[in-house]
Design a protein that fits this description.
It is built from 14 helices and 34 strands.
């Protein structure tokens, strides 16, 4: 049975349940949704508002404008709670629009000041624009109204729908914007909005958290805006990772909440703070899984080749890399001085040893899986391992709502064919075909003219916490109507299928011949695991170069002997004094030359990559520069250990058109590295931290004074 949810808020919450980011329909059914509406408007009387449908219709009449008009109708009629599905399990809400829009007073009631939609209606002409209230401009009056409405709302839910749990999805605005090339820049307008609205959003969220029984989802730690979001660049159009992580947290939260409720039903005396909750926390702690258990080899295989293996565009990579870094480390990365550096070096040695010792056994086990279902541990873990042999083919003849396909013949009697509701809409009825035989001959007839789209993928497999585990299928042969589509190796998984498209006519017969196997050491895929990625960070040098002068000062790359190096000009490195270039390479030796554009002061920083943990804190990874030559001048000859925040700095004056040549040689830190340099760098870091602490304390004092003023005002008004 699917979990029924309601949504009350903004796209910050709604987009979590969007198929572009998450396959939510497997677990959830959206029973109701209320967007762009203030809680004050919802909980106030609608009797003082008169309107006709034509008054709120936005033209031209299209799908988007009909949706906008319906949002206004919900706001004016205040009928959301009347149609609230009594079977709903969870209501997920956020406070963005409460703070962003504000309200408008009409007669003796209020409506939401939806300045995105109302101004495009006839109704808006009758609204007194001077009766607007916002939390920012009318702090005391608005906060009292919102607080009273909030209490009424929770009382209503508790009385009418006692089984509904409410989840607060926390919001944080940001000015950090992600570009297509992976770099970031700061949007000044977004920064202004964040400074205004974030303290107000936090105020409302704190009230909900402290005064009402809400579950919390918070993925705002290091959030950024996606410049290429499906809805366009916008204040609340976050990067994909936000929606993916939020969805995973909601799944975990709901699973945990169900377990707590089940235990409470057995023993009413158990509270949310009981031992069961702490035990459930332990279930989510990866450290509790012992690699010395009876599933030793099985767990290692799963972790090394499947759960963590990925093609280079897999969104799971970064999170799992950091999971692993946290899991294997017995060192405290907050340690200072030499302990930190030794921890970094020791982790590198441990990872290298683990891979070299186990790689052959991993590859052998995969051969067993490919050739024989009686592989070691198969019987014990059949339900799990069978997933690696299972192919999934999604077929749809796109056109009208009656477009479909009809199965004619199949060589696999155990084949599973379904037509799920999520694959059925006004463009046709889709079919999902799954099988584990390893080969398939399938034929079907097309109903109506259309565009046939076939996706070859793996099954959607998730762990016990609802997190998707990438499982790869190697399609070795695909023939469609005797046309060779794949011959050799085509690796796909659920979120990255191999797609075939073809225009078809009503009655066309399509024959598909497919062969596949689980991914293995012969597959045409570069398995870049998290272990290897972590190692890469230990060897990756980064060089920041800028020819300082006027805004047109720049440099042009002439030659670089590392074809896999990354050379780009991030927005944050551009300013009135010129355009900077960042070069990164893991080759460990590099010959680089570039031409200076305009006279200027050339400044070069040699450092390591910026690597961060789950909380966004920098994890120092050190690079040992053995040799640095610039235009034949020896800058380093021996050992100079640097890291991202304390780079080796070089400066020289250059002329327009001047060619600069750099020769580099480096390695990860090792027993021959000059650790004295590291100790010196650590002192610099500690000095910077002390300065930062003073700035934070000053900022906290300012915030406390502001909070004190508002609290006194609020207390006086009440």
């Amino acid at each position: 049975m699917k979990i029924k949810i309601g949504i009350f808020g903004s796209n910050i919450t709604r987009d979590i349940f969007c198929s572009k980011f998450n396959d939510y329909e497997e677990f959830f059914e959206i029973s109701s949704s209320l967007e762009r509406v203030s809680l004050i408007s919802l909980m106030n009387d609608a009797s003082g508002i008169e309107f006709k449908d034509n008054d709120i219709q936005i033209y031209p009449l299209n799908k988007k404008n009909k949706f906008r008009s319906e949002l206004l109708r919900q706001d004016l009629s205040k009928s959301y709670l009347n149609y609230f599905d009594e079977n709903i399990d969870y209501l997920i809400m956020d406070e963005f629009f409460e703070v962003f829009f504000g309200i408008i007073k009409i007669n003796n009631t209020y409506i939401t000041n939806n300045f995105w939609d109302y101004p495009d209606t006839k109704f808006y002409e009758s609204v007194n624009k001077n009766d607007k209230l916002t939390l920012n401009d009318n702090f005391i009056e608005y906060y009292v109204l919102w607080r009273n409405s909030c209490d009424k709302f929770f009382e209503h839910i508790s009385r009418r729908f006692p089984n509904v749990r409410i989840i607060l999805n926390k919001v944080k605005l940001t000015s950090k914007v992600l570009k297509s090339d992976g770099s970031y820049y700061v949007d000044e307008e977004f920064q202004k909005c964040a400074e205004i609205y974030n303290p107000l959003i936090k105020l409302l969220e704190n009230y909900l958290e402290t005064h009402h029984d809400v579950l919390i989802v918070d993925c705002t730690g290091n959030v950024a805006i996606n410049e290429n979001h499906m809805r366009g660049k916008g204040l609340i159009h976050y990067v994909d990772e936000f929606y993916i992580k939020s969805y995973e947290k909601i799944l975990n939260l709901i699973d945990k909440n169900k377990l707590i409720n089940a235990e409470q039903s057995k023993n009413p005396h158990i509270t949310h703070n009981s031992s069961i909750e702490s035990n459930l926390e332990n279930l989510n702690d990866f450290k509790s899984v012992s690699l010395d258990s009876k599933f030793n080899e099985y767990l290692q295989i799963k972790k090394y080749l499947f759960e963590e293996a990925s093609v280079n565009y897999n969104f799971i990579d970064i999170g799992r890399l950091r999971d692993y870094l946290n899991y294997i480390s017995k060192n405290d990365y907050k340690n200072s001085d030499i302990n930190l550096q030794e921890a970094s070096f020791n982790e590198l040695i441990k990872i290298n040893r683990f891979i070299s010792e186990n790689k052959e056994s991993f590859e052998n086990e995969i051969e067993y899986l490919e050739n024989d279902l009686n592989a070691p541990y198969f019987n014990e873990n059949a339900e799990y391992l069978i997933k690696y042999l299972e192919s999934r083919i999604d077929i749809k003849n796109y056109g009208t709502e009656t477009n479909n396909i009809v199965l004619l013949n199949s060589n696999d009697s155990s084949l599973n064919i379904t037509q799920p509701s999520w694959f059925n809409n006004n463009e046709g009825i889709g079919s999902v075909v799954t099988g584990v035989k390893g080969d398939l001959d399938l034929s079907f007839k097309c109903i109506n003219d259309g565009k046939l789209v076939i996706g070859f993928k793996s099954v959607d497999f998730r762990d016990k916490y609802g997190n998707r585990v990438p499982i790869y299928i190697d399609y070795t042969e695909i023939l469609i109507n005797d046309e060779i589509v794949v011959d050799g190796s085509q690796v796909s998984w659920h979120d990255s299928p191999f797609i075939f498209e073809k225009d078809v006519n009503d009655g066309d017969i399509i024959n598909i011949k497919v062969n596949w196997r689980p991914i293995n050491y012969k597959s045409n895929l570069f398995l870049e695991t998290d272990y290897e990625k972590l190692i890469d960070n230990f060897y990756m040098a980064r060089i920041d170069i800028k020819n300082h002068g006027g805004e047109n000062n720049d440099l042009a790359l002439v030659d670089c002997d590392d074809s896999s190096s990354n050379v780009f000009k991030p927005d944050w490195f551009k300013g009135h004094d010129g355009i900077g270039t960042v070069v990164s390479s893991s080759k460990c030796d590099l010959n680089l030359s570039f031409r200076c554009i305009n006279d200027g002061d050339l400044k070069i920083n040699f450092r390591s990559m910026d690597f961060r943990d789950f909380d966004g804190n920098g994890v120092p990874i050190y690079i040992d520069y053995h040799k640095v030559e610039i235009d034949g001048e020896s800058i380093i000859d021996g050992s100079a250990v640097q890291y991202h925040d304390v780079p080796l700095h070089y400066e020289k004056h250059v002329k327009d058109g001047q060619i600069v040549n750099i020769k580099l040689n480096w390695d990860s830190i090792n027993k021959n590295s000059n650790f004295q340099d590291i100790l010196s760098n650590s002192k610099k870091i500690n000095d910077e931290i002390k300065k930062l602490k003073i700035e934070i304390e000053d900022l906290n004092n300012e915030n406390k004074e502001l909070k004190s003023i508002k609290e006194k005002s609020l207390s006086y008004e009440s």
